[in-house]
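Z., the sequence and structure:
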Amino acid sequence: LQLRMVKTNAPRCAGADTQVGMNDCAYEGFLEASAGMSRQLRLIETALTSAQRSQWRRVQKSWLAYRTETCQFEASAVGNGSARSMVQWQCADRMTRQRTAELFRLTNCPEGDLACPIPRLQRTP
């Protein structure tokens, strides 16, 4: 069994030469990704009406549950071994960065996009 860090963490984690170090580095990558997503979420929340905000919170809560279940499933590939948390944090990092990109697209809808739920952010330079 060969273990490796995801490419996004490779330069920062080059010195991680133990499983504990790789687990910690994967967690740090996830925290970094979460901070980026939180910034986008705050931006979106400020532009929503109260009705939209309620729906939006349900959407985001569902996405968080999806991410958790998906990453637990991915981590099951290593059983209960010492690499489990690394695999789980790498998955959460990857999925959080993907979600942040989706959120960024929501805040940058092209003019005339009828499916854009946040039109007020279209005008943000």
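The CA atoms of residues 79 and 111 lie 48 Å apart. The mean pLDDT is 86.

Let me know what you think.
H.
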